[in-house]
Known about the structure:
The chain is an alpha+beta fold. The chain has three domains: 6-241, Hypothetical Protein Pfu-838710-001 (Beta Barrel); 255-372; 381-420 and 429-510. The protein contains 15 helices and ten strands. Helix 6 (257-280) packs antiparallel against helix 7 and helix 7 (288-303) packs antiparallel against helix 8 (310-326).
Amino acid sequence: MAKRDDTRVAAETDGAAGRRPDVLRAGSEVRERTGGGGKDRPAPAKRRYFELPYGVPGQRLVRPDLDLVSMVSRGPTQTYEIDVTVLDAADLRLTRAGVTLAHRVAEGRGEWYLAAPGWAPYLPVETIEPMGEADLPPGLAELVLPFRRHAPLEPVAALHCERSEFVIRGAAHETRAVLHDDRVTVRRGGMTMARYREVTLQPVDLNRKQLGWLTESLQAVGGTRVKELPQPGTRLGVPASALGRFDDVEWDTGTDLEGFVTALLAARLREWLTADLSLRTGTTHDARLLTEVLAGLRGELRGLAQALEPRWVEDVDQEFDWLIDQLGGLDADPGRAPVTAGPVLRSQRYLRLLDLVVQSSSVPRLGTAGTAPATEAVALAVQQAVHALLKAGRTLSPTSPSEDWAGLRVLADQAHATTLVARRNLPTWARKVDKRVRRLTELLPGCVDPQLAEIERSVSELGPQQAFSAGRRYEQLLAAQTRARREVLSQWGPLQERLRAAVRANGTPR
């Protein structure tokens, strides 16, 4: 796994406090000091950001009567040109997920760059590694694997930046402000796609009048003050609305079913990827959190099965079963040795399942009810699941095949999963229905004893004495199973009436 040193992670994260990660910034930031005796300057005021026309000449922001007496370059270490090649899949899936991967060349030195502020602390806010070889370092490749999945990485954009950095000083040579001026050219497919200029004004020791004059001077040459600079992905042609697709989602209970499923999958994918990264980076070695997230998503998809494409649901359901089993299962002994999750998380089968769900978070695999109001759709799904459960129960007897009784348990689990999904939009009603479903489910475990089938399969291989003992054991188990089934059937009438009444209590049109 791509285990990362805790000290290094802290340095990467803390060093970026108060500013966005910047793929165009070479080297490390130098801490500013005031001119008064070399003491550390006070905490800087909030940065101000401006977008300027690309071709506007640089401004001399000097006004002696306001004690802004000089503006000087910070020297070659802070004024430079840098070439950046952004690496991503062809559909920019890393960029859309808030991950920037690039290799950069400044002053003849090559280096790898990774930034993922939205995924801290599991991924670095930003980090740099020397480019010793042409191949992406294994540690970085491991960290971006759940985001790129099967897609190959390729150069998707080339950025050329001319960065200038200036210090604005007062009469006593004290630092009043620092100005970053970036002129950037973006090329994709060999063609220039955009040119832009970004200016960042970092106040150090400015009063209100000085700050106001500097702001007005930048605006006077065509600058537009912005709350924050655009995210790098928007410069590559990705709409801002498509960035951060796995960020925390606000649920809109009034949306249609497509919006509901999209929000649900985006929220669960955030949990999935966070649990994945905690294992992948060595933050934890216990796969139970990931297993619980996967089991929860599997249950919700089962609950939405009435509205989703049946073949897709069946496919991902089987894959979730496989994956949960590979990670140790839900009921594993807490005292057992932790599962080595690395090979599973790198497997093609795991990445395929993750990719299927990610794709469906953009374009949900819905049936014909995609435009129906979500509240009506999930209510209908609950009603259909309960109807199927009650219909199956009416045909059972104590001697019905075990497959039929096992099918009843599957339908009960399906109804339970559907009510869990409905709780988002219909919390009171869904909980009431689920309470009735669980009361029925609690009676079912003894109705199908797998030991009976095992004895039936093995009896032909037993000797006379063993066969006799197995026969007595079989009779005891069969009697217990029959009693459990009779108990269910004796309570079936009252239970189904309560369940029907709970379903009818919903005011949603049916």
